[in-house]
Write a structure and sequence with these properties.
The chain is an alpha+beta fold. It is 23% helix and 38% strand. It is built from three helices and eight strands; from the N terminus they run H-H-E-E-E-E-H-E-E-E-E. The radius of gyration is 15 Å and the shape is globular.
């Protein structure tokens, strides 16, 4: 499990604004940060018809799931770094396990390792009506650029 501080390093409101408002693509998708604790984040994505990738099933686009995982995993990592630190995605692996239905979708992410320069986060996507049925899993590896206080 993740080691580290028992309190958030970044305020809930700042993190909410970063996830929901400051990143234009997240804002376009309509991501909503619904829960954070140290090393954990939960992000919801309300359904819109523009998010469909396969109109014949219909199923959510894989890129939407990938973006949701990356945003949620990044938010989880932000709970463990200092406000002045910078993070960027190095690697993102997504396993698509079943189609995402045209309805609300949720991602939960947990920091599993945070070192001096690298953070690793596991994520899982599901629908709230069937939390036991995983739609996709992801693992994000992030560069953490630390800025020391003067």
């Amino acid at each position: 499990m993740s080691e580290g501080p028992a309190e958030l390093r970044v305020s809930r409101e700042v993190l909410r604004q970063a996830v929901e408002e400051m990143i234009p693509f997240n804002r376009y998708l309509g991501l909503v940060l619904t829960a954070i604790t140290p090393g954990f984040a939960r992000v919801e994505l309300p359904f819109r018809p523009e998010l469909i990738g396969d109109p014949f099933r219909p199923a959510l686009h894989g890129g939407v799931l990938s973006a949701l995982i990356d945003a949620c995993a990044g938010a989880a990592l932000w709970t463990r770094v200092e406000p002045a630190d910078k993070i960027s995605t190095i690697d993102l692996r997504v396993d698509y396990l079943r189609p995402g239905e045209p309805e609300l979708i949720i991602c939960e992410a947990h920091v599993i390792r945070l070192g001096g320069r690298i953070g690793v986060v596991d994520a899982r996507v599901f629908h709230p009506g069937a939390p036991e049925r995983t739609i996709a899993t992801g693992k994000g590896v992030y560069n953490v650029r630390r800025f020391k206080k003067a």
